[in-house]
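TA notes, week 10

Several of you asked for a full example with nothing omitted. So below is the full record: structure tokens for the whole chain, then the designed sequence directly under it. When grading your own attempts, check the secondary structure regions first.
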């Protein structure tokens, strides 16, 4: 029998804050690779990933699950056994398929709609805070562009509208533009973005594609602020932005940065329901 019930590995403040929630529910926790050590008081701390995985049958990772220098999918694949149950976010499909073939239960937080929506809310709030922190003008009545109108784009647009920003939604989907229009937002077809880019003071990118290219960045006003919250590698040519002296911020992991405790409660509740 394993010495601990749950191994919490990698991640950010969200995983750090999950530890006391598990402990409050009577679980013994071993941790590994959590940077926020001042906030995590696990029952044990592993010195290696192997020690953590050997110590518990339930593995809870961060969002994303893979974290450079702490947790690599290749190493995790080598160390897991049939006894394990794995929770984490943005888990590669190839790894989930491998777990299925090996009869290992693997649950991706971000494939759970309720968690994904909660994450989008925290991301939207974090994006607004990043905008306020990095610019000395009001969001109120600002010309604000939201690129993409998926889950995050919709919630972010609504938050900005609530702050009385002049919000324009940019998308290549006529359906998304129609929905944005129905909610009283301005709309901009993606093919017109380059010609209109210079009109906006705040630009929020939620689309996981390189849309803000050097050619487009050349059209952006000098005082514009770009907040890139897209998944993956984002949607901005950052080298070009630096050359053009444009402030472009890559902002991954905003829920962990600004809403670690609340996000951790949401994730912990999901894990506890499925143990």
């Amino acid at each position: 029998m394993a010495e601990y019930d749950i191994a919490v590995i990698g991640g950010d403040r969200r995983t750090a804050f999950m530890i006391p929630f598990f402990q409050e529910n009577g679980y013994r926790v071993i941790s590994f690779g959590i940077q926020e050590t001042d906030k995590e008081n696990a029952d044990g701390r592993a010195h290696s990933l192997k020690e953590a995985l050997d110590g518990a049958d339930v593995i809870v990772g961060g969002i994303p699950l893979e974290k450079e220098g702490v947790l690599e999918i290749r190493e995790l694949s080598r160390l897991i056994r049939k006894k394990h149950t794995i929770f984490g976010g943005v888990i590669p499909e190839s790894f989930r398929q491998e777990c299925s073939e090996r009869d290992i239960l693997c649950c991706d937080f971000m494939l759970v709609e309720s968690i994904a929506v909660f994450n989008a809310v925290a991301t939207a709030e974090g994006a607004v805070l990043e905008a306020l922190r990095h610019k000395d003008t009001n969001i109120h009545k600002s010309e604000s562009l939201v690129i993409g109108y998926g889950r995050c784009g919709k919630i972010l647009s609504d938050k900005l509208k609530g702050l009385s920003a002049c919000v324009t939604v940019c998308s290549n989907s006529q359906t998304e533009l129609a929905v944005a229009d129905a909610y009283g937002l301005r709309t901009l077809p993606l093919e017109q973005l380059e010609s209109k880019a210079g009109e906006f003071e705040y630009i929020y990118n939620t689309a996981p594609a390189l849309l803000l290219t050097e050619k487009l960045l050349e059209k952006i006003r000098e005082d514009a602020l770009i907040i890139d919250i897209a998944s993956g590698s984002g949607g901005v040519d950052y080298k070009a932005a630096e050359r053009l002296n444009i402030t472009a911020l890559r902002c991954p992991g905003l829920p962990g940065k600004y809403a670690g405790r609340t996000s951790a409660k949401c994730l912990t509740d999901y894990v506890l329901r499925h143990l």
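The chain has a mean pLDDT of 94. Use that as a sanity check on your answer.
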